[in-house]
Please model this.
Amino acid sequence: MKEKLLDVKDLKTYFYLSSGIVKAVDGVSFTLEKGQTMGIVGESGSGKSVTASSITRLISKPIGKIVNGEVLFEGKDILKMSNKELLSIRGKDISMIFQDPMTSLDPVYRIGEQMIEVILTHQKISKQEAKRIAIDALINVGISDAEDRFNSYPHEFSGGMRQRVMIAMSLVGDLKLIIADEPTTALDVTVQAKVLELLKDVQKKTNTSILMITHNLGVVWDMCDTVMVMYAGKTVEYAKVKELYKNPLHPYTWGLLDSMPKLSQDSNKPLITIEGSPPDLRLTGNFCNFHYRCPYVQDICRTKMPELIEVDEGHFVSCHFQTRENTLERKEV
Amino acid sequence: MLKTIFKRLLQLIPILFLVSTIIFVITRMIPGDPAATMLGPQAPVDAVEQLREELGLNKSIGEQYLIYLKDIIKGDFGRSYQYGQSVTSLLFERFPNTLLLSIVSLFLALIIGIPIGIISATKHYSIFDYVSMIIALIGVSMPIFWLGLMLVLIFSVNLQWLPSIGMGSLQNGLWDFISHLILPSVALATIPAATFARVTRSSMLDVVKEDYIKSLRSKGIKEKSVIWKHALKNALPPIVTVIGLQTSSLLSGAILTETIFSWPGLGRLIVDAIQNRDYMLIQGAVLLIAFIFVFINLIVDITYLYINPKINYDGKGGDK
Model:
């Protein structure tokens, strides 16, 4: 067994709106080992990003609140840390990379100034040394003429370059975990591949773990060791990537896999989708959240919430009809 | 940069020309005659006629306009009818008083309004936010003459702490100078302070929702730096705009405040000039105000360059 880096237990993050309580993350558990990559997939609004933000407690207060759970990072519960401890791991041990690189750097400061500020926040060194570290990091992520680019403003970079800068900013600390929240969604396909390569490269060099939030199953296949499928704030399936592709069990996972367009597909055929849309998260109750859209729905799905059970070693699924005893026959689409 | 400033200064010429023409036409359209006003209703007709001739008012409008323009180009803004003094010297005498009052008020408004706006935004929906925004709402909607009178009533009449009218002099000691400044500048600072607080709050609220703020927090940057360094600088453009507007209107003389507190500033000078049909003084004063507005705008535009690196008036740059 490898060393656990991150151990999330029964995490619940709710948003208290005037129209009701949105259970954005409702009892999610997973573990991430050192040097491993885990993917979280799901549709928009399934709670992937909120899960990621909850890990470093970046939930907008007072509306959002982490109401339950433990987030053990190297054995210490982040949710119980003091503000000072929390700030000291943010950006140093755990680094986040966001979806839209166009908006995730402060537009009015030079990137060099921003990098130096991050470095000096975590290390007691001189400005000169900080500058050297920053330039090294920029070179490491493949930014040529790093010395010049150091004095550029964010708007002078392309999207892919800005994402590289974001990654470079992660590298300046004592990096153990990268939380990448859809890091390539806003980028061109060719740039996407380069950014993913860079992340892999960083991981190899520093033995970092990566938590990859995405809705792109191709990225999961390419990057991840394990994967968690989320739906309406809950885990519906959690397994090793190879296992999930070989033997997917949850009807929602089937839907996701079937929805992936294939290049070999007849272009006259309509694309396959999962009918319907994700449920209103204020209206969750004692039923399977997927029952509105599930082609295999039965009465029990509407009256009882399925539990997440380990059907095979390391393969968890939350469906009334996928247990150790029963299996569901997957229909052809 | 220098080129930009030079270009903007050149733009001043047509603007001031236009303003001077418009103000010339408007003053001539005010009913009433300067000579008749000066001499009073009982004055004999030929005395009025004689005065009109002395003032050059018997000439045709076109002729008067040409003389006026010629004088302006020479830097001569004429003589005030009522004071008999040159307009330039009158304006130079009064403007420093307005400048002093404006600077003190502006300073008060900035150090009160902006921090309140920032704290309200960071403590959104808190008691502080509600209370300060209600006060700010009262501040922007309160009639300034009423506030001025209330201040006089409380601090001069009842408590007798501060003088109610006039401007102090340094020759009578520092306290005389400061004590005369307090009430008018507080009255004058109210609306700008409330405006700054409201604009700062709403601009900050927009900025703190931005991704880069979350991104900065995710890097472990201290909240103080996130708000006061990063968020504030991003929130500045609308704030600088209203600071510019408020500064211009403060500098052009606060008529009500100056009247209530008998402050010898530009505002009262202009009102008196209009009442007495003092054409030359009206023209000179309005030109000065127009110049102030254009000048403050130029400063605001230059400030934008410093706070937003994406702005480039040379037409180059932008996203690469």
Chain A touches chain B through 33 residues (CB under 8 Å). The first helix of chain A runs from residue 48 to 55. The domain at 4-231 of chain A is CATH 3.40.50.300 (Rossmann fold). The mean pLDDT of chain A is 88.
